[in-house]
Every structure is written in structure tokens, then in C-alpha cells.
Amino acid sequence: MNDAPLYVLEQVTKSYAGRTVLHVEALDIRRGEILALVGPSGAGKSTLLRLLNFLEFPDSGTLRYRGHPIQPNNAPLSLRREVTTVFQRPALLSTTVWRNVAYGLRLRGERDGKAEMLPVMERLGLTGLAHAPARTLSGGEVQRVALARAIVLHPTVLLLDEPTANLDPYNVGLIENVVAELNREQGCTVVLVTHNIFQARRLAQRVGLLLSGNLIELADVKAFFESPRDARTAAFVNGEMVY
Question: In this model, does residue 152 exceed pLDDT 60?
Fold first, then answer.
């Protein structure tokens, strides 16, 4: 078994319009773990996710994936295809649910993805909606379609940006169960950005707190919630204002 971290970040910074929005001194992401990133809006969580998906690149510092330094002209397609993201507000194509779920497979040249798609769609409760137009779906259904589209690709890494925000309990439970199964049964590494500390506690093995672009604390889930080292972490998990 390869125990080397899947991602290694060292002194990574990212700025927009001259303002630094992310500064991570050190972060290792383990193979096969579920890592939850929590913190208030504007803390840098989504920016970090975009770096992990190679949609953007650090302004300084080092980001390595599987030991490979990731730079603007040095992120091979083979590595990019190992990582997929489900965004908080996913964009679906103006076509059927089936074609949306098949989209990534077709981009990769797989014309008949039925064998991959059917069990995923059944698990996510989408079989009866296969021929429904995407524009007719509820928010929870849209999120389930986006998740199905991602996991039929058998990603090495699944990045989730607030995957259950504003969803009803049924959809929250269904999505959380599928993510946990994917991690447990296929060893998929999951990085979850969430405002919901209860969700982080249910799903993750480790939790990190981001404040003002800085990684304040990273710990196993029990230690993070029950014996945090940083006073700001303790305040955050107790629901106090630390923004």
C-alpha cells in the first residue's frame, strides 16, 4: 500500500486583484480519506477546492498531486481526469437526465455507458427520471444528477462544494450515504467543503478550519470537535462568531 499523501501543499497562496484569499502553509491530503473543510463564507474553502481540481493554480508555493508538481502548463490530462468536482450550483445541460449523467463518459469516448450508469442512477433515485428534461428537476434532483455524473467516472478524488446546501433531509441523507459508500467501497478520496459542522462530523475522518484564507487547525474528527488545540476552532464548533 502506498502511504504517501495524495496531495501535498506547501506555502500555497492565491490572490485576486491584489488581495490574498488563501495562504496554506502546509496541508497533506491522505489517500482514501474524507476530509471536510469548514469555515465561514469567504474563508477560502472554494478557492482551495479549485486549486485541488487544477482549475486554478497557486500564485506561490508548491502543490503536488501524486508527487507531480502542478503548474499551469504541467497538469497532464491523465491527472486531471482523476479528479472531479460537484459544485454547489451545478450546471446541467438542456437535455435529459440520462444525457447529463452520460456527458463525462461521452467526452472520454465511451459511447455506451449503460453498465456504468444504471447502478449509479438507481442508487441515487434517478432511474425514474432518466428521460426527464433537466429544467424540470428540483434542487435536490439537480444535485443528485450532478453527483451521478461525477461518480460514473470512478474518480480517484471527488471534490464536493456544499453538496447539500438548502436541500431537504431526504436528499441530504441520500447524498451523504452515497458519498460514504463511494469512499468505503472504492477508496475514493473525498474533500468536502461544508458550512454544516454536523455533516462534517458525520462524514469526515479529518476536519480543517479555514479562516480568512488560513488553515487554522487540521485534526482527526474526534479531536477537532472534542479537544481542539486552537481557541478559534473551539469557538467555531461551539457556534460562536469567529469571522
Answer: yes
Q: What is the pTM of this model?
A: 0.92
Which amino acid does the sequence have at 74?
N
DSSP code per residue over the chain: ---S-SEEEEEEEEEETTEEEEEEEEEEE-TT-EEEEE--TTSSHHHHHHHHTTSS--SEEEEEETTEEP-TT---HHHHTTEEEE-SS----SSBHHHHHHHHHHHTT-S--HHHHHHHHHHTT-GGGTTSBGGG--HHHHHHHHHHHHHTT--SEEEEESTTTT--HHHHHHHHHHHHHHHHHH--EEEEE-S-HHHHHHH-SEEEEEETTEEEEEEEHHHHHHS-SSHHHHHHHTT----
Q: Tens digits of per-residue pLDDT, 184-205?
A: 999 999 999 998 899 999 999 9
